[in-house]
Specification:
It contains 12 helices and 14 strands. It is an alpha/beta fold. The protein has 2 domains: 236 residues, Peroxisomal Thiolase, Chain A, domain 1 (3-Layer(aba) Sandwich); 150 residues, Thiolase/Chalcone synthase (Peroxisomal Thiolase, Chain A, domain 1). The protein has a 10-stranded mixed β-sheet with strand order 5-4-6-7-1-8-14-13-9-10, sandwiched between helices. A two-stranded antiparallel ribbon has the order 2-3. The protein is globular and about 65 Å long. The relative contact order is 0.18.
Length: 403
């Protein structure tokens, strides 16, 4: 029998709240973090973690050398460790079988661009060597592991918008193979001017600044940021230390449709395949799925592809399944998005209620069942989607923990 992998805690910092309890409260209240971004300025609308003061969680020591991505991830790690019974600095934190797996699309993009620009402007002999460590894409994961003495596997997964779910899959397999005892897994992404310029030049961002997932009037994405780390361990490990699981990682599906480096395959074959694989690996069909946490962001192509994939898998029953599209509240957090979706799915299963899609109004394409209020569910299984324009498609099946 396959080892059961469970979620026993989480840490989250997001545009709507920091900490699982406050995040859950804000999420179910229909709060939105989308608004003017002081970080990006010039009237830019984004979902920013505003008034971010990491010292309140991390203290002052060592903060100066951490960039924004590393600070976000380290805060999520501190919350996850403390919330699951592992206080930072205790012997458990030094365990070589305790590690971290982080999904990200760009990593510390602003640090990378700033360092490179300094080298071009001032010459390579005048760049600040203290800035160099932040230019590697796995810097944030490494910094968090150093701070909390996580001596086990330390991996950074880069798979576009699917990075967060790929990280959870990677962590689950490591645990099943017995290569770790406990892992923090999820994603982190920062807002940066460099990412904004790239998305704008490619016509991806919303001119209106209003994310409308699956909406007929959708006009693009609104960027977001944040960090989520789930505490993952085997059922046996959780039971031995008296931890109460939230949910079980029941199945994961990954598929690469290789359509293009920068556009979606509207036939949705890769996305539908990833969902089907996730259901198959969970040992179920489409019928038991009680709710869906969608990847939809307001992108015209991406949302059409996801709607088509869901129709292929669920058929006429799709109109009956409650769906939440959290990017109306959190923005498009890129590599962290899948991890946000997994946390929201775990909360939905625990509460037997899907949170509202903030600000939703009007009709949806494909008969997708969104609502601007909470939707009650009756079931044990949730589906989480993360689909990327580079062809990376991932789906996760979570099962409510029942022992």
């Amino acid at each position: 029998m396959r080892e059961r992998i469970v979620i026993t805690g989480a840490g989250v910092i997001s545009p709507i709240a920091a900490g699982v309890a406050d995040f859950e409260k804000a999420l179910y209240a229909g709060a939105s973090g989308v608004g003017p971004s002081p970080l990006l300025g010039d009237g830019v609308v984004a979902a920013e973690v505003q008034n971010f003061v990491p010292q309140q969680w991390l203290g002052n020591k060592g903060i100066r050398v951490l960039d924004r991505t590393a600070r976000l991830l380290s805060v999520a790690a501190q919350m996850a460790l403390c919330g699951s019974g592992f206080a930072p600095g205790e012997p458990a934190g030094c365990d070589p079988e305790t590690g971290l797996v982080c999904g990200t699309m760009f990593g510390s993009l602003h640090s990378i661009a700033s360092f490179d620009w300094s080298g071009l402007e001032d010459g390579p002999n005048l760049v600040n060597p203290m800035d160099f460590p932040n230019t590697v894409i796995n810097s944030a994961a490494g910094q968090a592991a150093i701070r909390f003495k996580l001596g086990g596997v330390n991996s950074t997964i880069c798979a576009g918008l699917a990075s967060g779910l790929y990280a959870l899959h990677y962590a689950a397999e490591f645990l099943r193979l017995g290569r770790a005892r406990m892992l923090l897994a999820g994603g982190a992404e920062e807002l940066s001017a460099e990412a904004l310029v790239g998305f704008r030049k490619n016509g991806i961002t919303s001119p209106s600044g209003v994310p409308r997932p699956f909406g007929a009037e959708r006009d693009g994405v609104t960027l977001g940021e944040g960090a989520v780390l789930l505490v993952m361990e085997s059922e046996k490990t959780a039971s031995a230390r008296g931890a109460e699981p939230w949910a079980e990682i029941a199945g994961v599906g990954c598929a690469q449709d290789a359509h293009s480096a920068h556009s979606y395959d509207l036939r949705a074959e890769g996305a539908a395949s990833a969902i089907a694989m996730a259901l198959e690996s969970a040992g179920i069909g489409a019928e038991p799925v009680a709710c869906i946490i969608a990847a939809a962001s307001g992108s015209r192509a991406a949302d059409e592809m996801e709607a088509r994939a869901l129709q292929k898998v669920f058929g006429a029953r799709l109109a009956q399944i409650p769906v939440c599209a959290p990017k109306t509240a959190l923005g498009e957090s890129l590599g962290a998005a899948g991890a946000f979706g997994a946390l929201i799915a775990a909360l939905a299963l625990r509460n037997q209620c899907v949170p509202p899609t903030a600000g939703f109004a009007g009709e949806t394409i494909g008969g997708i069942r969104l609502a601007n209020r909470s939707q009650a569910i009756k079931g044990e299984v949730a589906l989480v989607n993360a689909f990327s324009c580079d062809g990376n498609n991932a789906a996760l099946v979570l099962r409510r923990w029942s022992g």
